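Handout for the seminar on molecular recognition.
Each group receives one record of this type.
Step one: identify the two inputs.
Step two: read the structure output and locate the region that could contact fe (iii) ion.
Step three: write two sentences on what you found, then compare them with the reference statements printed after the record.
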Amino acid sequence: MTFDRVWLDANLCTMVAREGDPLGVIEDGAIAARDGHIAWVGRRADLPADATTTTQCDGAWILPGLIDCHTHLVYAGDRAREFEMRLEGASYEAIARAGGGILSTVRATRAADEAALVAAALPRLDLLLAEGVTTIEVKSGYGLELETERRMLRAARRLAGLRPVSLQTSLLAAHAVPPEFAGDADGYARHVAEDILPAIAAEGLADAVDGFTDSVIGFDLAQTRLVFEAARRAGLPVKLHADQLRDDAGAALAARHGALSADHIEYANAAGIAAMAHAGTVGVLLPGAFYFIRETHLPDIAAMRAAGLRLALATDLNPGSCPAPSLLLMLNMGCTLFRLTVAEALAGVTRHAAAALGLSDRGMLAPGLRCDLALYGISRPAELCYWIGRNPCLGRVVAGA
Ligand code: NIG
Ligand code: FE
């Protein structure tokens, strides 16, 4: 047996759960890669062969490359002024209703060309990668018309060519009602379903379709359904911003459409949680947005656990509700704010995040999967959840390189 490359003298957090060991730890381990995939994982002493390239890890910990399964990485401008307004007493919702919020980022993004969008997003992407992220999802949703939605998705695809990273795109045209359709959310939802979505799908620019179901500042269930039905016709999987600010039965709607994930879900009710678990819809927790908009209603983690729901954790990186380009910070917030265990939090940025993107070829250290690795100078995996604002990442490997 020959390998292209082996990593030796490492501690492995495989995320392949075993009885009594949800992290699947292998101390003094080794990993071998061939053709960009993991060919062998185990104890160093059992390694069956050597390779042309050998990396000594000096006791570092290796995890599957981290996966940020929910970001709005591509946008122009910032919303620091709104942050000030919120400190002066305005709410996230009141700002949105007054034409600020998402629509202020829409104005800035419409005015930016593709090169400007790439240039603005790249430093944010680099911060995520520096922490060990190897797969990232990027949404559109600040164009709200075909040209800009397309430009955002093209910018996202371009980023994937500029850095070693896997990038999945989601069309989020149903993020807010644009000024051209003010007062006519029905009309805009139809326009998304009949015009924007088919055009984007035909160009192969989206890997999935997302929406924002919210009875006050987003789309209602019927409007979301229109968009989801168009996604099915185009052969694209769906996901949903659901039950973020109130219980709108978004979780159940996502489950009914076999969504890959329902995200935020602070207000998801028991029936919605059960429906998600039954449908295999992953729950994506976004503690950074919860923190930044000072939400106080916690997601019902106990009910989610009891239902056997798979939970992912993501940054939701965006200018309005979470300007935090750090998935490691989300590990800490998932534990401190939502009381996730270390094993739950780490599964949330690895194997469950892979499931949230419909990817079965990553998220664990196991033979046959992509050789996407993140190396850390830590004494135990819990350190990744423990630190606030300290990045112990030593390096990344993407597809074996
Ligand atoms: O995931 N809920 C809607 N969308 C984003 C916020 C986007 C924004 O405020 O610009 C979210 O929190
Ligand atoms: Fe979001």
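Reference statements: Residues 70, 72, 241, 316, 318 surround fe (iii) ion (ligand 2) (CB under 6 Å). The first helix runs from residue 80 to 87.
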